[in-house]
């Protein structure tokens, strides 16, 4: 029995259903717990219904819990997952999906058994092939711009045309369309929708406007 058989195709379908809801996934690093719900609500009301909250801050897990309770219709991804232990924490706080910056054998093995789908991070064809043998077909391409950007993704489509990606890293309002024009790109991730200055000022209206602009501009 190949490893590939262990991962049902439903996992790919689950990720597709999440990623196809929004062409842009805001990537959030929440510094103050009191910002979590108003920030998420502003993005959601602006039309961005899939959010990635990274585990880069001390209050991240509590923030995810609160956002899940306040916005049950949003799809919440837990990002910067580095270990199976963090993957388990994401499951416990009700993540809809998990996102990793890169991927280890341990994460692939855990992801195959988890009820929560993983979007594994890759930067090279070799990494992509490792994920492929575990049955993964959907990946985060990170760091996108530093790893060759649009040209790299076009090249990936040659040997592995069925793989699809959510590129993240160095993507903003000016180059998102270049990525979204590629057949093997489902959506893009970015932090440009949540400028620190606006969060510090608690200017949720401005963030809602940025979200609305992105949702309208990059709509399918």
- What do the pLDDT scores average to? 94
* Assembly form of the protein: single chain
Query: How many β-strand runs?
Result: 9
Helix and strand run: HEHEHEHEHEEHEHEHEHH
Helix coverage percent = 40-55%
Q: Strand count, sense and closure of the main sheet? A: 6 strands, parallel
CATH-level-4 superfamily name? Aldolase class I
Reported CATH architecture: Alpha-Beta Barrel
**Number of discrete helical segments:** 10
Name the shape in a single word: globular
Radius of gyration: 16 Å
CATH topology value: TIM Barrel
For the record, the count of structural domains works out to 1
Low-pLDDT sequence parts: 1-6
Distance between termini?
A: 39 Å
The CATH class, by name, is Alpha Beta
The percentage of residues in β strands lies in: 15-25%
Kindly name the structural category. alpha/beta
For the biggest β-sheet, the strand order reads 5-4-3-2-1-9
Catalytic activity: 2-dehydro-3-deoxy-6-phospho-D-gluconate = D-glyceraldehyde 3-phosphate + pyruvate
Protein name: 2-dehydro-3-deoxy-phosphogluconate aldolase
EC number: 4.1.2.14
Pathway: Carbohydrate acid metabolism; 2-dehydro-3-deoxy-D-gluconate degradation; D-glyceraldehyde 3-phosphate and pyruvate from 2-dehydro-3-deoxy-D-gluconate: step 2/2
